[in-house]
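User: We ran a pulldown and think these components assemble together. Before we commit to crystallization trials, I'd like a predicted model of the whole complex to look at. Sequences follow.
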Amino acid sequence: MSLFLEISFSAMANGLHNWLAGSISNATLVSVTEMAIAGVSLLLFLVPLCFFLGYMERKVAAFMQIRLGPNRVGPKGTLQIVADTVKLLFKEGLTPNASDKFLFNLAPIIVVVTSMLAMAPIAFAKNFQIWDINIGVLYVSAISSLAVIGILMAGWSSYNKYSLLGAMRSGAQIVSYELSVGLSLISIVILTGSLRMSDIVASQADGWWIIKGHIPVIISFVIFLIASTAEINRAPFDLAEAEQELTAGFHTEYSGMKFAMFLLAEYINLFIVSAIAATLFLGGWMPFHLGNWSFFNNVMDYIPGSLWFMGKTFLIIFIIMQFRWTFPRLRVDQLLTLEWKYLLPISMVNVIIVTMMAIFGWHL
Amino acid sequence: MSLLGEDIMTEEGEFVINIGPQHPSTHGVLHLKVWLDGEMIKKVQPHLGYIHRSIEKMSESLSYRNFIYATSRMDYLSAHINNQACALCVEKGLQVEVPPRAQIIRILMAELTRLSSHQLWWGCTGLDLGAVTPFFYAFREREAVLAIMEESCGARLTQNYCVPGGVMYDIHPNFQNRVKDVIKQIKSKFQEYDDILSGNVIFEQRTKGVGYLSPEDAVSFGCTGPTARGSGVSCDVRKWFPYDGYEKVQFKEILETGGDCYARYMVRMAEMKQSVYIIEQLIDHIPEGDFQAKTKAVIKLPKGEFYQRVETARGELGVYIVSDGAASPYRIKYRSPNFSNLSALGHMATGSKIGDLVAIMATIDLVIPDVDR
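Assistant: Here's a predicted model for the assembly, 737 residues in total across the polymer chains.
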């Protein structure tokens, strides 16, 4: 099964490439067409994914809040989120009179596009990757920090004081937490010696980094979880859209599909940070192996890599969702204190320790 | 480019935002005008009057039986205690002895009301600070309390159970058993409340040292109830001026000396336990007898002035009746706890952040219809 999936994807991709190269003589046109196909298939993957994440979030919240959650539309309420999307599609997308209309309409597009771009180097299974770029990790962190531009744009152009405050907070927050995210990613890059996603996954064939890397990698994993939760503006770090303080923060003035774009981007970002964490710390699509238990290892190998990847990713998503429904929100100064006084120094020291580990070969 | 002008600052170069009258954290139609310097609050100015229904003026044309009902709509979370205050004031004028059974029922209902009010407050405090889950936990127990209210009083929120001379009906036969069940349930959940909110690091950071109110300021602003007791001012009317037989009940007046949001929070959490303690003492000792004293069909108070104070869930409620001997009051004035507590908000919030303003508003537990009346 696993073999079938992996072979079939690369065979499909190669076959498509050969067919396109045969029928279109211009090499540039071939790659443009390939990109368009990749983009469309990504969209076809992302929309159901976001539906599922939306449903999952409601069910997790309901489970934690002694409620049932959606259970009316469709079997077990699974179509509720589809119904909500249809509602948002039919709603009027208001543009406030006093707003900067061009930026106001551009902002949600930028937010969604940046989060979709960050999907490119994520390895779903062996050879199942849109773009195995040699600077994969750097690419993801660079692209995901662009999202702040969209948020700032939304807050600024809305001509709303709450939005402005939300955008201000968001800017301070994302720029600060980017550092910790970067440093905790670097610790794995140092251990692996490569920024390429497929290399990082391959280096974990004999054990995931979170097990091989002892306590320092566990520390950077925890820091990554905290900092990336802050970077994607989720509770308890959702200061940019703090409902009780700023009504809805930077997207106060948005409605209809433009609002849904922000929601879509939030869920894509949630998936991306969880996928990155799963790839870097939990071995990506690598199955779980235990020393010399060959029977156990064979059973584990039989589970497809894509299932391993999705399982790990959704485990982390589940954890991040639980944060949201447990903790109160931090205040803006406490948020920055947490980053600059605690997370950043810890991750700096941690990077030095990891570097020493890599030089002296202390890891397993 | 814009209709409103491109500058979002005022002419004086100040950044002013209007929180409310429609805002998720004002819990009603309170309008706060907030002067900001970045995230820092320079000045807060509450604007009132959005839900003014002139209950005091209205009462002047209502009979002494009827004007009590309007008070349920003031502080709707302690509706029973408001009714009790009015009933007590009328009884004072009539010089009627309330039967012991009615007194005990009133106290029990008042403490259940206080419990349900504090539970709602606890949930809303969590909500205001960004934790949504406590709200549902709080409502689980509150629902059980309200079901008891419904069974005996016929209403869940605006009970109108107190009438001059006692209570309107006798308690439901199930009352004692159900109260015991609910008390048992609530007692087992206190630990859960502490686990999810009180002991949380983020919650402590958000509330400790935030919104400090010194005892002197608490007195000079006229703060009462948990707001003042969080600053260490002893002001529990049930202790100082007992009514309806509170002098026979054992309970502690909770005082905290912190003066910050956390102290006010802890006062209310402990008060819930005290309410449970009061109910436990009384629930098995409801005396037999009448639930209502005999009063005339048309009540006429003698000429004079009458004043009665009670401790609602938010502080001291005073009812002041001026009578000219007619069948309806000449003038009524309510001293509502929320109005005085709100007046301290600006003092507490100045110099803190927007997030703190929300925390302070949550811990002084405002009910806006009581501010405006």
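DSSP finds 15 helices and no strands in chain A. That may be worth checking against your pulldown data before setting up trials.

User: Thanks, that helps.
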